[in-house]
Write a structure and sequence with these properties.
The complex is a heterodimer of chains A (about 400) and B (about 300).
Chain A (H helix, E strand, L loop, with lengths): L1 H14 L3 H21 L12 E7 L5 H10 L8 E6 L1 H9 L5 E5 L3 H6 L7 E4 L6 H22 L1 H12 L6 H69 L3 H7 L4 H31 L6 H25 L3 H19 L10 H4 L6 H13 L3 H33 L2
Parallel strand pairs in A: 1-2, 1-3
Antiparallel strand pairs in A: 3-4
Helix pairs in contact in A: 1-10, 2-8, 6-8, 8-10, 8-11, 8-12, 8-14, 10-11, 11-12, 11-14, 11-15, 12-14, 14-15
Chain B lengths: L1 E10 L2 E11 L4 E5 L6 H8 L7 E6 L2 E2 L4 H7 E4 L11 H11 L4 H14 L15 H12 L6 E5 L7 H13 L6 E6 L2 H7 L2 E6 L2 E6 L1 H8 L3 E8 L2 H10 L3 E5 L3 E6 L4 H11 L3 E8 L3 H9 L6
Parallel strand pairs in B: 3-8, 3-9, 6-7, 7-8
Antiparallel strand pairs in B: 1-2, 1-4, 4-5, 9-10, 11-13, 11-14, 12-13
Helix pairs in contact in B: 3-4, 8-11
The chains are: A mainly alpha (about 400), B alpha/beta (about 300).
The structure holds adenosine-5'-triphosphate (ATP) and magnesium ion.
Chain lengths: ~400, ~300
């Protein structure tokens, strides 16, 4: 045990020999995430975001509710966050096809009427396929407005009930009654909108938080693991280099066993990866407000992902005979697993046919673990953590066998 | 005593060792002297269990080392031809690492490291990373790691290769201090002076074979050659032949300016000089050519021993 620790510690020390390189590796995901942020529409809004551009097609002109929707999106206070244009449908399609806007919101005909008559109705949202995050924001915004509408419907329950009963009983409502009612509702809404607009500030805040979390959490977690995989490969590459030199022979001429050597190497790399992940987690919290209430589970997740990455790299080292092979096999593993695992593109955005294979990628489990922890989807998180643990055990056995076999080729 | 019997090793069609035998006595420095590609490293690798021989055996304390590998590995220290340690660490870190790997506790390892740093003259650079060391310093650390666990038998594979003369001399001086460590040393080199200066006995190797072995004196006498003396001056043939024939000295080469003679015993040289002076022979210079390892080496291998 002392031998393992001593070897692991000296190994760990050696890892910090090139701090610049490590810094570069560590902060690349940070920088990429920042660039992606700015890339959405160029320039930067108050919080580093460009305002979301949304085209609204209102096929229900004059409808109380639809006007409210349009109003909500083109609210003065929200201008630096959302830029809404009210346009005709063909023009909106041109905008989205030209990738000029992040999304098109289409309010259907009779939207207000349907809502008032308690009929289900839907707003169509066409997302810009080249953007992943903003449409999500639009959706979130829409949800908030939907909630607002539902809230309004509760307020106007009485009025609506009158109308509905009238309709259900097929009672003829004279024009007068209907118009009065309608006007009444309109008045109420008109009175309530300023209230909403004041409340908007609050809603806006909620939106901002929600906006930040999904975007940063997806990109930052994904990019971080992508680069961490590179780092663990670069670090463990040493094992292959060492196998082809004399140091390894010198190590095994001492009383060191092959299994002890393997454990020491894995231990030092896991600790190293954990250290870097820790730094990244703090950076993510400071820069992108990625955070969680459960520090305990965060540490567990980071530790498990350090193990997964280290063991994945160890498998690559076990398969490679020289540095060239490490590079080639490493590239295949890194890109395949990163792609499938949602490091480069969020899994939810992957085509369904590819998404099926995500479960093959160990990166999927660690990326999703972090995301679900941050988004507080704890059920999913616990499942992921259990799967990750099993994968770690499997990878451990596989990499152990491969590496001991490779070592036996070098020293008896 | 280490006894090596008829070890053979081939790499595909290259016969690296064609059956070598020698023995190394307790506490002696045994030199394996040979040019590049002679098979020195191959021999060392086999004796240190890093590669397997095709055939042959080696015994230490009457145990076959190839059948008792882990026992044997504890007895030996190896200083490879290429330096082998972690350049990103300090010399002390390297020494304590190998100390720990040989089962020392941290106090023992640290004490041993201090002793070796002192012995190897590396104390002043104790805190520097090895990557900042000079070639000679790296070589010295390479040796220190090889003896960290006080081996009984030490294998040194060309420990002074690729460094300047000064650093070489320095290492030789350090190696002489090793006598205190009571180790048997097997030392490979292609440096004649080194072998002559350090080694108690030598085996001359070439093309996978041991061509001759013994002490330096034994080897030279084995050569069966005598000392030659070359005079330059002005010589009259008849007179000279007369003088030299009288005392039974053979003339190997004669010209009016130089003569080369063969002397069986060196104490005859003053007599020759005296006779020349008595007979008014003019001598400008005199050069005594004794047979040495180089002559022997050249004769055995047909090669000059140069890097
Ligand atoms: N792994 C190997 N595969 C094939 N041939 C080898 C291998 N190792 C050594 N040889 C060959 O065996 C012969 C002896 O090599 P060896 O390294 O033992 O020589 P050496 O005396 O140590 O030379 P040097 O002074 O250059 O170190 C050489 O012809 C070499 O090319
Ligand atoms: Mg050699």
């Amino acid at each position: 045990m002392r031998k393992i620790l001593k070897l692991a510690v000296s190994d760990y020390k050696r890892r910090w020999n090139k701090p610049i390189l490590i810094l570069l590796y560590v902060f690349t995901p940070v920088i990429i995430t920042l660039i992606m942020w700015m890339a959405f529409g160029g320039g930067s809004g108050g919080s580093g975001f460009a305002p979301l551009k949304l085209a609204i097609v209102n096929n229900d002109k004059g409808g109380v509710i639809s006007d409210f929707f349009v109003n909500a999106f083109s609210n003065e206070n929200a201008k630096d966050k959302i830029k809404a244009f009210v346009v005709k449908e063909p023009e909106a399609m041109k905008l989205i096809n030209g990738r000029k806007v992040s999304g098109v919101m289409i309010i259907p005909k009779n939207f207000s009427k349907n809502i008032l008559e308690m009929r289900k109705t839907e707003i169509k949202l066409i997302k810009n396929p080249t953007e992943m995050i903003y449409p999500m924001i639009a959706e979130t915004g829409l949800n908030i407005i939907k909630d607002g509408t539902n809230y309004l419907l509760t307020i106007f329950k009485d009025e609506i009930t009158i109308i509905r009963t009238a309709i259900e009983k097929k009672e003829k409502m004279d024009n007068m009654t209907f118009t009065t009612l309608y006007d009444k509702i309109g008045d109420k809404i008109k009175k309530i909108i300023p209230l909403f607009e004041e409340q908007k500030i609050e809603i806006k805040d909620v939106k901002e938080e929600e906006k930040k979390i999904p975007m940063a959490v997806f990109y930052f977690t994904g990019m971080a693991f992508f680069f961490l995989f590179f780092i663990s490969n670069a670090v463990l590459n040493d094992m292959v280099k060492e196998r082809n030199g004399f140091i390894i022979k010198r190590l095994f001429l001492s009383e060191l066993k092959k299994s002890e050597y393997y454990f020491a190497r894995i231990l030092s790399v896991v600790l190293f990866m954990f250290t870097i992940e820790f730094v990244l987690a703090i950076t993510g919290r400071l820069l992108f407000h990625i955070t969680t209430d459960s520090i305990f589970w965060l540490l567990i997740t980071l530790f498990l992902s350090a193990i997964i990455l280290s063991l994945l790299s160890a498998v690559i080292m076990g398969l490679s005979n020289n540095e060239r092979q490490v590079h080639n096999i490493g590239m295949i593993f890194v890109f395949l697993f990163a792609m499938l695992g949602g490091s480069l593109i969020p899994v939810s955005v992957l085509p369904a046919s590819i998404r099926k294979f995500s479960v093959v990628s160990p990166l999927y489990y660690i990326t999703e673990s972090v995301i679900s922890l941050v988004l507080q989807r704890m059920d999913k998180f616990y499942h992921l953590i259990i799967s990750t643990s099993f994968i770690a055990i499997g990878l451990f056995i596989l990499s152990y066998l491969l590496n001991i076999r490779a070592l036996k080729k070098v020293v008896k | 005593m280490l006894k090596i019997e008829n070890i053979k090793k081939s790499y595909k069609d290259i016969k690296a060792l064609k059956g070598i035998s020698f023995d190394v006595k307790k506490g002696e420095i045994f030199g394996l002297l040979g040019p590049n590609g002679a098979g020195k490293t191959t021999a060392i690798s086999i004796l240190t269990t890093l590669i397997e021989p095709d055939s042959g055996a080696a015994y230490y304390e009457d145990k076959n080392i190839f059948n008792n590998i882990s026992w044997w590995r504890k007895k030996i220290g190896v200083v490879p031809q290429e330096t082998a340690f972690y350049e990103e660490l300090t010399a002390r870190d390297n020494l304590t690492l190998w100390g720990a790997l040989y089962g020392m506790d941290s106090k023992q390892a640290s004490e041993r490291a201090s002793y070796l740093l002192n012995l190897m003259d590396l104390e002043s650079k104790e805190k520097a990373k090895v990557s900042e060391f000079s070639g000679g310093m790296k070589r010295r650390l390479n040796i220190a790691i090889g003896i960290v666990h006080r081996p009984e038998v030490l294998f040194l594979d060309e420990p002074t290769v690729g460094i300047d003369v000064q650093a070489r001399v320095n290492i030789r001086e350090i190696l002489k201090k090793f006598v205190n460590e009571e180790m048997s040393i097997i030392y490979t080199t292609h440096q004649l002076e080194e072998a002559e200066e350090l080694c108690d006995r030598i085996a001359i190797m070439d093309e996978g074979e041991i061509k001759a072995r013994g002490t330096i004196e034994e080897l030279i006498s084995q050569l069966g050659e005598e000392t030659e003396v070359e005079f330059s001056g002005e010589f009259a043939e008849d007179a000279i032949r007369n003088i030299l024939n009288n005392i039974g000295v053979k003339i190997l080469n004669f010209s009016k300016e130089t003569i080369l003679i063969d002397v069986e015993k060196e104490d005859i040289i003053p007599e020759v000089v005296e006779l020349f002076m008595k007979n008014n022979v003019i001598i400008n210079t005199m050069d005594i050519k004794r047979p040495n390892l180089e002559t022997l080496f050249l004769k055995l291998t047909g090669k000059e021993l140069r890097e």
